[in-house]
Amino acid sequence: MTEKLRPRFWERPLAQLTPPEWEALCDGCGKCCLNKIEFEDTGEVAFTRLACRLLDNETCRCAQYPIRHQFVPDCVRLTPGTIGACAYWMPATCAYRLRHEGKPLFDWHPLISGDPDSVHAAGQSVQGWTVPEFEVPEDDWEDYIIEDL
């Protein structure tokens, strides 16, 4: 049996969310699955067009989410306890980051719109424009940096 989600649960403090509510907070944009480059001298984080090998480019979801760590051991386990350490590299539009910062969700978020495809319709996902990470040598990743995300 699936646990019922509480009305407007996303407005609660993150630590009060149930595991299903936490998972439902994801907007399905796929941006967190883009490879990032963190510049040691500035601490700046740059997103690239290069996607994790498990990202489905059309659905913007992990193709192996429940067992992803078997394939990508360093995939981050985002939880209410780890969001504080991870927020700086999460996309500015990420629901987890927004709620961590005390900000509301965008109107295009599926929890607000009621439409799971609204994130794509609003142009807020990586749908259709990523390059699989294994197609590009790591030394060339800087050539795939995205200026605006």
Automatic annotation (TrEMBL):
Return any one Pfam family short name: CxxCxxCC
Q: InterPro entries, per this entry?
A: Puta_zinc/iron-chelating_dom (IPR005358), UCP006173 (IPR008228)
Q: Which family does it belong to?
A: Belongs to the UPF0260 family.
User: What is the designated name of this protein?
Assistant: UPF0260 protein C5F46_02170
The organism named in the record is Phaeovulum veldkampii DSM 11550
Record lineage = Bacteria, Pseudomonadati, Pseudomonadota, Alphaproteobacteria, Rhodobacterales
